[in-house]
Structure formats: structure tokens, C-alpha cells
């Protein structure tokens, strides 16, 4: 059954240690963050969470050292379009469940102290977060219990609270993710992702973001069996450019199809399909120029030859071939001629 990209992709993104480190160092304004030893951080299995929450919640727990002591950082990824009013209760429930499990698995508890758990709720919805972040705001004030009242607060990271200008100043993997989520602009994102790939030392981490963006642009959802596609590591900037050009063009096609379905009669379907094939041919030519630096006469030949291909699947096959880094111009021409059953481009 298909699942949202955010549910699975986000969890995979923030399970990456480089992305986790950027999240804390950039967006958590706490003095102890500077003392964290990210070389020894690790994610934990949430064995204390009930089976119900394992199926419905996207959350992570990191174990990190700070000044020689262990701290646990709990991140709950919230994808709903609205802010659940009793989020503070849910987060507190996870933490107390963690503490109970922490105690139960230890034989000696006489002098045992519970470790620090820092709670973060990461929200990527469109609306402003309105749920209270403090438990006290959810509890009646009368009678006043003073020191016996329940005190708990989580840190909220709402992506839409950051302006595009602020995120463009930061320019790391997490800020670019927030930019894509809260202020989606295709042209800005294309340039930012290309530049980010050049700047970022950890190519595996930045590739996770690129693959997440590709899946989001192409499909919006992904089957669980395609989850491993997020692990593909891009080796060159050229490969990134090719992927982005294809993904963004297909997104534009998808938007045009949706607009067509809303505003045109079925009798115009064939003309619309031809428009899509024309767009595919255009992208093939653009990628050819990018990959193989065609001269003007070569471009003209390929333009005439591609005009003879009227099969959308064949055009998609050519696009997919151009995404292969090892593809040679001769291999592409051979595939093209196989589709046309002719000897060479005219």
C-alpha cells in the first residue's frame, strides 16, 4: 500500500547523522548543543512504544554524549495539516514510557538516575501551529497546585515559521528541506540543490535530500518497495542536474495534466497527449545537449529524428537512458534507431 513520502522519507532523512547534526546545530538554540559529541550518536529502537504508535507515529530517539554524559533526543515528526491540541500529552506519554522501560531493563536501581530526554516536535504543515507546547496550558488552574502541578514543555520546530530569506542565508541540507516544504519554488530549489551538492562534503546525506525531492516532484507518494531508492548516491553534479531537469519537467507535465482534467473536455485528449510528447522530446534534447555538448547541426538532426517518435513510452525510455551516468552517445543513438528502425539520424 502506498505511503506518503513524508512519513517514510522524513524518518530516513533524519536518521542520517549529518542531517541530524545540522538540525540541532542550526535550529536548536540551546548552549549544550555545542558540546554534543556527534561522533558517537546513534538511533534507538523504540521498544517502549505501543504497537499502535509504532504503526501511526513517525518518531526517532537519538542517544548522544554531552560533556561525558548521555542525553536522549526525542524527535516527533508531525505531518498533519493541523496541530493536535494535546500534542504535549502525547510527547510526555512517550517520554514516561521511555523512562519506565529504562528502569525495567536495569537490575540495580537503588542509585539509578534517569537520563535527560530533550523533546522536539517537527511540524511541516501549512497552517500556523496553535497547540500549546506546555502541559500547564492544558490543565485547569483551579485549584492552584503550585509546586505539585505538572510542568512539561516540548520544543516546537515549525518549518513555516522560517522565512525564505532566513533559510537561504543558512543554506544547508535541513534549511533546504524546510525551504522545499514551506516555500516551494521550482526555480529557486533547482539552483539551491545544485549548489548544495557542490558545497556538502557528505554526498550520501545530500543525496538523501535529492532523492526525497525527486520522489516528491514526480509522485508525491512512493510504494514501500521503492524505499531503497532514497539510498542512491549521486557521484557528479552533472548527474544531479540531469535528475533535477527530468523530475521538474515531469512535475510540470503532471500539473498540466491536472489543469487539463479540470478545464478541458475529453474530446481534446489527443491534442493534450501530443503536447506531452512534444514536451518529452524537448527534455530529451535538453539532456542530450547537457550530456554531450551537441553542436548546432547535431541538435538539428536529433530534433528531426525525435519528431518521428510518437510513442510516449519510447520517449520515456530515452529520458531514463539519459539519466544513466555511463551512457555514451553511441548507445543513445543505437536505442533511438532501434525505436525508429532506421540506420542513423537524418
- Overall structural class, as computed from helix and strand content, comes to alpha/beta
Secondary structure tally, helices? 13
Order of helices and strands: EHHEHEEHEEHHHHEHHHHH
Low-pLDDT stretches are: 1-5, 342-346
- State the helical fraction: 40-55%
| Spatial extent as radius of gyration | 25 Å
State the domain count: 2
- Work out the number of β strands: 7
What's the multimeric state?
Answer: single chain
List the strand order in the largest sheet: 2-3-4-5-6
Mean pLDDT: 81
Strand content: 5-15%
* Shape descriptor: elongated
Distance between the termini: 47 Å
Considering the chains and any ligands shown, give keywords for the structure:
disordered C terminus, alpha/beta, two-stranded antiparallel ribbon, single chain, disordered N terminus, 346 residues
Characterise this structure.
- Strand 3 (58-66) and strand 4 (69-78) form a beta hairpin.
- The protein folds into two domains: 3-231, no CATH class; 237-340, no CATH class.
- Helices cover 51% and strands 12% of the residues.
- The protein is elongated.
- It has helices spanning 5-14, 17-27, 51-56, 87-104, 164-170, 173-182, 186-199, 203-218, 237-263, 269-292, 296-306, 312-322, 329-340, and strands at residues 3-4, 36-43, 58-66, 69-78, 116-123, 155-158, 221-222.
Topology at a glance:
Elements lengths: L2 E2 H10 L2 H11 L8 E8 L7 H6 L1 E9 L2 E10 L8 H18 L11 E8 L31 E4 L5 H7 L2 H10 L3 H14 L3 H16 L2 E2 L14 H27 L5 H24 L3 H11 L5 H11 L6 H12 L6
Parallel strand pairs: 4-5, 5-6
Antiparallel strand pairs: 1-7, 2-3, 3-4
Helix pairs in contact: 1-8, 5-6, 6-7, 7-9, 8-9, 9-10, 10-12, 12-13
